[in-house]
């Protein structure tokens, strides 16, 4: 009989070690039939994600360790350990490490799924691909990422 469940051990799952974070896919689009993706994101001291939105998918963040500052729909907020933040489709948001925080870890749920596939495609790219504005725009469009601008000024 085929296995009807997925078990991912600590530190397991497809992972992408970027300059600002190290992300582990715990439940993929393939595991859920595209319904959602669950990821563990280990944020490094220089983590910053500029202002963007998603037209069709929601994101939920649950902070496991550290403090992450979020800018959501015009509001800045600190999200310490234990905080859960849900961002529906169409809501502009950005996030960065809180002042003085050198590491944070959070669970992220993307619904419907797709962000795991976005990371897998990015992992196949080289520096020239990242500098190709047309290529990046097409990739962002494919995965419902609408970049609005840089990180807003934090008060």
From TrEMBL:
InterPro entries xrefs: Cupin_2, QDO-like, RmlC-like_jellyroll, RmlC_Cupin_sf
Transmembrane region(s): none
Domain of life assignment: Bacteria
Domain Cupin type-2 positions: 50-110
PANTHER family: PUTATIVE (AFU_ORTHOLOGUE AFUA_8G07350)-RELATED
Protein name, as recorded: Cupin domain-containing protein
């Amino acid at each position: 009989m085929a296995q009807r469940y997925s078990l991912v051990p600590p530190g397991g799952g497809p992972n992408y070690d970027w300059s600002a974070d190290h992300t582990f896919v715990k439940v993929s689009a393939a595991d859920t039939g595209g319904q959602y993706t669950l990821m563990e994101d280990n944020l490094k001291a220089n983590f910053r994600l500029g202002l963007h939105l998603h037209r069709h998918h929601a994101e939920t963040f649950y902070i496991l360790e550290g403090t992450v500052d979020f800018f959501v729909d015009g509001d800045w907020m600190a999200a310490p350990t234990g905080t859960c933040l849900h961002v529906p489709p169409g809501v502009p948001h950005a996030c960065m490490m809180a002042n003085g925080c050198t590491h944070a870890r959070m669970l992220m749920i993307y619904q419907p799924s797709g962000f795991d596939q976005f990371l897998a495609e990015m992992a196949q790219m080289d520096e020239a691909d990242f500098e190709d504005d047309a290529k990046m725009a097409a990739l962002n469009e494919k995965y419902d990422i609408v970049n609005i601008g840089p990180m807003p000024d934090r008060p």
